[in-house]
Amino acid sequence: MLKRLIAVPNDPSPQTLQFAIAAIREHLGMKIAYVSTFEGDLTVMRAVDAPGFEHLIKVNDSASLYAVYCRHILAGNLPELITDTSEFPLAMSLPLTEALPIGSHISVPLRDRNGVAIGMFCCLSPQPNSSLSQRDLQVMRVFADIIGEQVITELGLKRSARKRDDLIDGVIADRMFTAVFQPIWSLQTRRPVGVEALSRFSAMPYRSPDAWFADAVAAGRGVDLELEAVRVALPALRTLPPDLYLSVNASATTIRSGRMMDVLADLPLGRIIVELTEHEVVEDYDALVAALVPLRQAGLRIAIDDAGAGFASLQHILRLQPDIIKLDMSLTRSIDVDPARRALATAMVTFARETGATLIAEGVETRGECEALIGLGVQNAQGYFLGKPGELETTLTLLASPTSVKLSPARKARRASAQRIFASAVMAG
């Protein structure tokens, strides 16, 4: 038994807690053991060991504090150790005593760091048990102290989860976010080709967009938030020049849900790109491919985001055969001075050319990076150097004027030379 008790603080899992209360129940010779927590006027079962009595008590069962022994023990009207309930009129007056029945009962409170009772650890049996002693009660108290921290942590996590869920529900219901738009430029013509819609949240506390979307997934509302973000961005299509596309973001889970088609219905899908933002390994690519078929048949193009950032994005590229591949900013950053990054980007340029995909470099922040990408043959790019995300009106103003990218004479010469060499190679082939 001691070994099981020692394991609880080191491994505070539900299984370890279950083993521990079973060990104490067996040690005391009792039939039922449980750990409960208080929620308002209810006591809720968090762990139960009751072989043969599962029909009477199980995890998540609840009862009024007025109907059980807990409130009376905390008030001092019943002792923590009762070897024979028939000796206590108050115990016998409770319907629960006869309903279970309860012949013997031993119970100690679980307390938080301020000494406030937050639950109980109880053992009981249908028959009286005269062997129960103060020593047994002390064992119960020691165990209650051991698991108290675990229960406090669990309750804190549950409160945080409820608060998070409520906040996410409010963010979605009240659309506490807007869309901003970042221009995407052709590095060959230095003309805009489209914009990417990005979400910005007004809800407090301030969180990055990634954090809001992650919380929505944890709350089971990830698909809902993603689709609402897409809905907020789509009206921009009416204002954008007709030769520009709008790129929106969605996870593989959202695509597989089948709800994207409803959101995009009756829109010019040839002007819409969906960037797959999933960073987790997709377990069922067949289902994802099947969900994409009607969208792609209707003209929608698919982009794989963050290429080069990890294994998942490379798997997406190989399995989904995207129309567009977006080089992650971790690959773009310092590409003008890092031979390894240039080598990897060159490989991606070759891959895109061989598969017919368009390559977009993300996170371009310096002139040197931009010029290096042009020299490598990357087709399109976006980033702060080319235009920060902004409100639609601001972005439209930027799109109306040519990009400020200016190549140095040396860069121009190298690019022209590379283009001549590549053209000769193509003609020779």
Automatic annotation (TrEMBL):
<dbReference type="InterPro" id="IPR003018">
    <property type="entry name" value="GAF"/>
</dbReference>
<dbReference type="Pfam" id="PF01590">
    <property type="entry name" value="GAF"/>
</dbReference>
<protein>
    <submittedName>
        <fullName>EAL domain, c-di-GMP-specific phosphodiesterase class I (Or its enzymatically inactive variant)</fullName>
    </submittedName>
</protein>
<dbReference type="InterPro" id="IPR035919">
    <property type="entry name" value="EAL_sf"/>
</dbReference>
<dbReference type="Pfam" id="PF00563">
    <property type="entry name" value="EAL"/>
</dbReference>
<dbReference type="InterPro" id="IPR001633">
    <property type="entry name" value="EAL_dom"/>
</dbReference>
<dbReference type="InterPro" id="IPR029016">
    <property type="entry name" value="GAF-like_dom_sf"/>
</dbReference>
<dbReference type="GO" id="GO:0071111">
    <property type="term" value="F:cyclic-guanylate-specific phosphodiesterase activity"/>
</dbReference>
<feature type="domain" description="EAL">
    <location>
        <begin position="160"/>
        <end position="403"/>
    </location>
</feature>
<dbReference type="InterPro" id="IPR050706">
    <property type="entry name" value="Cyclic-di-GMP_PDE-like"/>
</dbReference>
